[in-house]
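User: Please work through this fold.
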Amino acid sequence: MDRTRPDPWIPSLPYRELMISVWYPALAPGRGHDLAPYMERGAAQAFDAQSPHRIPAGTVDWTGTRTHASREAPADPRGGRRPVVLYSPGAGDPRSWGTVLVEELASQGFVVVTVDHTYESPGVQFPDGSVRTNEVLFEEFARAQREGTVPALLEKTLRVRVADARFVVDQLGALPHGMSDVLDLRRVGMAGQSGGGFTAAQSMYEDRRIHVGIDLDGTLEFNQEPNGTNLSPVARHGLDRPFLLMGREGSDHAGTEPSWAAFWSHSTGWRRDLTLRGSRHQTYTDLAAVMPQTGLGQDVVEEAIGTIEPARAVATVRACVTSFFDRWLRGRDDHLLDGPSPRLPDVSFVQ
């Protein structure tokens, strides 16, 4: 609960409330530690009702789907203090939409904090059982389209997201259940897909406590169709710390995406610009794992996640993201991101 600001989407609320999940290396849980659900029931119902990413409502049992993690399992202290990665989802997606990637990072020794941006996520369920949905943002967007103010709304959305991220960083030292005792707050990174990648870049620009970041196919400007006319501060000025761009084939890379080109030319820190061949925008989310299991037609599947074999896509994104954070938060460089190699057969190094 951030008492320093009223909720920007519901001005009558005197403070901003967020939900996060913390993923971490844990000791083997004892009895009574069931695998955690992919989503809480109320949030799952709200998500399903929107037929997310063309998956008809009722097709997937989002609540019944289980993760590979146990609730409140004791943190493994044997690794000492661990680097922290914040994860921000794409616009209109829940924090769980990056679970395939987040679980991999936790299994590799990172503590990952996933953030729901309240009233933007389809459904955020709080501990009292209440669910906050995103109707207010739909209303704001419809108004912005009528009035021709979509860029201003997108800029406000980013400001809210960055403030959310910075507040979460503020609170890392006060996490319950002894979690703060295993965090190394000198080693903090951030990643996200789409709007979450934009959030990671801009949050780094505004907050030097976030040392490194990754943008998975997210524009860095305030337009629905990027054309370079409404560049964000991070695109106009760049970053002086390590940052990884990963885009979809034929679109998002520094040669074709104006905001990425501006960011690239103004940045002085280590950076890479990678394209996952055969990918689409949602290949960088859990849809790559979920969509092939829905029974939908191959044309629908390829429109959503591309032509790359889904298991290869998941493995490649996991490998690149882990390699990046290993290199810059733990000093373990496997040289995977040095340049093209047989180890990354589905990746093009654009720059």
